[in-house]
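Chapter summary example.
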Amino acid sequence: MDTAELVERLPGRFQRMLQWSAVPVKRPARNQQINYNEYHLSWVQYIGGILVAAAIIFVVCMIFYKSVPMAIILSLLALLYPRMMKQHLLKKRKQELTLQFRQALYSLASSLAAGRSVTNSFSEIVKDLELLYPDPDTYIIKELNQINHRIDNGESLEMPLLDFSIRADIEDITNFIDVFMICRTQGGDLVEVIRRTSNMIGEKIEIKQEIAVLVAGKKFESTAMMFAPLVLIAGLAFFSGDYMEPLYTGISGRLVMTGALAVLGVCSYASKRIMDIRV
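The structure predicted for these 279 residues follows.
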């Protein structure tokens, strides 16, 4: 009995708990269509993430509390890290797909402008993108291959495009496919629509990249400011143990250190939220 079958025998509450905590109990098949709202961590990512997070929490707790039992107990919070890593990887994958989709639009517009039909243009897109993305597991190449395969099997172009739009759940892709389907069914200048859409998506991505460059320096400064108190406290505890001793022994000292750690955590969270600028 494999892990997936064992999990399926558990009560629904435990299954939801495992899913929420990003435990990699089930891996999708290689040829299965990707749901871009889901991400399945590998066991290497899951265990590696927990170990790294636990090590960081342990060191921070030793700096603030100098208590091995407390550091070990608080290190259990590392079990929550895989969920955070999963959300980060989900966001990163959607960003990659958006960039790749923009390149596909440029290729599609060029192919249609050259006089090819829509279905033939989708076949040509794959050839163009394979030059830009040699990896066959590139998201947009896999999606276009699946679309072309379904067209070859007699499906209309609208059905695989709509399926891709639902699974991607990305605003730019959804808007383009909606307009594309309207032009196909009710008539419209597809070349002009695709050209304008690709330009709009390109401008939006460029704005995001410019913002990322401007914020990169502030992110580094924020990270440095988060580590500075840790280095300062660790230095004082090591070189001036007697001076810092009251903070590690009495209840009032523990409360002060706990408050300082809480303020540091809140500041870190607030800085990340402030610099998470969405366009």
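To summarize the output: The CA atoms of residues 65 and 248 lie 6 Å apart.
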